[in-house]
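Page 47, continued from p. 46.
Same chain as before, 136 aa.
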Amino acid sequence: SGIEGSQVQDLYFEGHADRINDYCRCDVLDTYFVFLRSRVLIGRLSLDDEQILVEDVHQMLKDQADEHPAYEHYLEYWHRRTEQKEAVTADQVAATTQAATTEAAATEEPAAATEAVTADDPAAEAPSERDQHDGM
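Result:
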């Protein structure tokens, strides 16, 4: 709705009850989504069921956006946030992949160095007969 709570009183005194209603509709939606997530966190609602309910609300907002411009505004913000989250997730996946690749390369280097030493020094391949007796 583009309205903040601090603006409600002035809007009321200016006779803009319709804009206050729009603000309240969006506030109720935010509260509903927090409620749904809290139900998931305490195990009273599955994540799949939450997603179904969220999609139902999304569809309702699309269906009623022409009647309630605040819903159109809410959907625009929703879509922007979704795109931002997807971009962050893609960045996190890329960073995790890079870290795993770097870690794998780091663990392979010592093995390669050991192989190089043993290839250059035949004595390093196996303990000598004396080393085997000393260990007993």
